[in-house]
Specification:
Blueprint lengths: L1 E11 L7 E6 L22 E4 H15 L4 E5 L7 H13 L4 E5 L8 H7 L2 E5 L5 H8 L4 H12 L3 E8 L7 H10 L6 E8 L5 H7 L13 H8 L7
Parallel strand pairs: 2-4, 4-5, 5-6, 6-7, 7-8
Antiparallel strand pairs: 1-2, 1-3
Length: 237
Amino acid sequence: MKGRLHSIETFGTVDGPGIRTVFFMQGCPAKCLYCHNPDSWDLNGGNRYIEISEILHWVERGRTYYGEKGGVTFSGGEPLLQGEFITEAIKAIHSIGIKSAIDVSGTYVDEHTEAAVAECDLVLLDIKHTDAEKFETITGKSQETLLRLIDIINKHDKHVWIRNVIVPGINDTDEDIHQLNEFIKRIKHIDKIELLGYHTMGVNKYGKLGITYRLKGVPAMNEKKLTYLRNLVRMPE
């Protein structure tokens, strides 16, 4: 079985606990306003195919550095777009005693999603926006998919890291954070909540790909305000 690969990051420290090997899988059904990897959208794009045997090779190379917390993260793109491959890859990774996480956008669910969620150890879940209309504006997809995914996560008692990109003028008010606090109460096991500041580092890619960047002129998120909003976040009781 082969998966379509965008890129690999070794010694990753932001895509889950500890030090991790991160496989960025190719393909995403969403076209998020602030996506900094538009070159990952096309499922038939990417650098190449990758087999599970090569994934295990990279995992073994990083094993020394994982410690008790680290492991492997499948990100994207949207890894659940290749859910059958991800499931089999995680099974292989577990067979050699390494933990796994999937970093998902909340915009895709199919017949392979439940197996992938059931097999992984941790889900990194990007909420995008708590308001259904604004969620669709940001992603081009219905928020119903996110809610279905949360139901699957809860069904299998998976632990979750919440991630939310904060964009000036879109979801950067006190009320937005209060609504986020309420929205995530529907998730059973939350270990961490991250507010990530919007940045413009990927804008040049759009021009090279001939894609219109729809947030042109929106400044990067102010760090002082981001710190203020982070202090409003509340873990569900």
